[in-house]
Amino acid sequence: MNKKTMYNLTYGLFVLTSAHEGKDSGCIVNTAAQVTSEPNRISITVNKANFTHDLVRDSGKFNISILSEEAGFDIYKHFGFQSGRTVDKFSGFENCKRSGNGLYYITAGTNGFIGAEVEQTVDLGSHTMFIASVKEMEILSEIPSATYAYYQSAVKLRPEQTASAGKTVWRCTVCGYVYEGEELPEDYICPLCKHPASDFEKVTG
Fold first, then answer.
1. What is the spatial distance between Cα 174 and Cα 12, in angstroms, rounded to a whole number?
2. How deeply is 23 buried, as exposed, middle or buried, from its count of CB atoms within 10 A (0-12, 13-18, 19+)?
């Protein structure tokens, strides 16, 4: 079974933001989708390990900023490769504004945002699906939306390091970090993007 087949699914990339009890945070998600048009509802599915997940759960509201092809790797790194539990992601971050619901949305590297209020939740084990009614939305630019395929081909870091003759390295398929060694520990976590060993591919020289 080739896990890379999942990269062929066409879906976008977004910055999910929320806040609760004075704490703001955001994370990268690829699971936002419209589920009904009348009334207008969207869904997001968020890993329970993300701090933003808890903010959405506790506040019942969120914004989705739609990443465009203008977004550089820095925005993915800022919102995707560090945890809001230990870092205030909006401290010193200037490319944002608050919408009518009081939450931040991202103003650079995005082409629109949607503000929504949670109506239903579905427990999916490691993730929660939030189904929400759309309360506000605005177009921010005409630059095309970034898809996951676009991120993989044009944005993700491409480390120059490759396996030399007779050597083996393991490359993170999410951020490109390289681990040297014949075997990758089963419990290994990427030090850059925090993804597990299952997201590494073996490269043999």
1. 15
2. middle
- Give dist(CA 127, CA 5) in Å, integer: 21
Torsion 91-83-194-73 (CA) sign: negative
Task: Report the number of secondary-structure helices (H) and strands (E) in the chain.
Answer: 3, 12
Q: Rounded to an integer, what distance in angstroms lies between the CA atom of residue 196 and that of residue 169? A: 15
Strand partners, 128: 46, 123
Give this prediction's pTM. Answer: 0.84
Residues 49, 150, 111: CA angle, nearest 5 degrees: 80
Report pLDDT digits (tens) over 147-192: 988 887 888 766 555 555 667 888 888 777 888 888 999 988 887 7
Of residues 26 and 169, which shows the higher confidence score? Answer: 26
- pLDDT, tens digit, for every residue of 102-117? 999 999 999 999 999 9
How far is the first Cα of the chain from the last one, in angstroms, to the nearest whole number? 23
Neighbours of 76 (CB within 10 A): 23
